[in-house]
């Protein structure tokens, strides 16, 4: 099901239960704030409707940099980041921390 022009969701029934897939193509850092807000609102809607007993996989291009300081986000990300966090990277990490 298309949540927006940038989000697509699918629910797959497996022998181990349901897997919810959310494919994203996020706005870039240079996009208008309104476009980013609409995207993240739709993304939040797409993830918040998934029952906790079901699996959720979020895949795609987030156009995000999460930076190299993984200490700020324990349990959310690994040590693979580089550089400085961007606004979009912050929003991406906040999504995971509220799950």
Task: Describe the SSE topology.
Blueprint: E1 2-4, E2 7-14, E3 17-25, H1 33-48, E4 55-61, H2 87-97
Parallel strand pairs: 3-4
Antiparallel strand pairs: 1-2, 2-3
Level of helix content? 25-40%
When the domains are counted, the total is 1
Q: Whole-number average pLDDT?
A: 81
Low-confidence sequence ranges: none
N-to-C SSE string, H for helix and E for strand: EEEHEH
Q: Oligomeric status of the shown chains?
A: single chain
Overall shape: globular
> What topology, given as strand order, has the largest sheet?
1-2-3-4
Tally of individual helices: 2
For the largest beta-sheet, the strand count, sense and barrel status come to:
4 strands, mixed
Record field, number of beta strands:
4
Alpha carbon gyration radius? 14 Å
Termini gap: 21 Å
Secondary-structure content class: alpha+beta
Strand content: 25-35%
Task: Describe this entry's structure for a reader.
The chain is 27% helix and 27% strand. The protein is α+β, with helices and mostly antiparallel strands. The chain has one domain (2-97). The chain has a four-stranded mixed beta sheet with strand order 1-2-3-4, covered by helices on one side. The two termini are 21 Å apart. The mean pLDDT is 81.
